[in-house]
Specification:
Elements: E1 3-7, H1 14-21, E2 27-33, E3 35-41, H2 45-49, E4 55-61, E5 68-76, H3 78-87, E6 92-98, E7 104-110, E8 121-123
Length: 125
């Protein structure tokens, strides 16, 4: 059975999908209401040294219906969902949401929203 995974970041990129899943995922535009974006620092020094970005976007649950994170809802298998769990940094937790389209999907959001409440830098959604 396939799952839906909402991505607002790197999992939308073809090269990341090929590297992680070995295939391109089927996806379409969607949005997560009640979330806002912020930036956090990548704490993996070896990843940054290897060319990864110094900062990552992170979705923070706001419970404010005016907040909205736009991205892509991707169809993944259960096995691919577990691979995505391993790919995401420890600052993220996978939670279930109902997207603007009405689809039930997983999103990687801030594991500790209070820690990121101010964020490093707010990002326009």
């Amino acid at each position: 059975m396939n799952e839906y995974l909402f991505s607002y970041g790197t999992l939308q990129h073809d090269e990341i999908q090929m590297e992680l899943f070995g295939r391109l995922l089927k996806g379409e535009y969607d949005a997560a209401n009640g979330y806002r974006l912020s930036m956090i620092e990548n704490r993996d020094a070896s990843a940054v040294a290897g060319g990864e970005e110094k900062f990552h976007r992170i979705a923070i649950f706001s419970n404010d219906s005016r907040d909205r994170v736009e991205g892509t809802v991707l169809e993944v298998t259960n096995e691919e969902l577990l691979l995505a769990d391993q790919y995401e940094p420890v600052d993220y937790i996978r939670v279930s949401v109902v997207l603007a389209s009405g689809k039930q999907a997983w999103i990687y959001a801030a594991a500790n929203p209070a820690e990121h409440a101010g964020g490093v830098k707010n990002v326009e959604a």
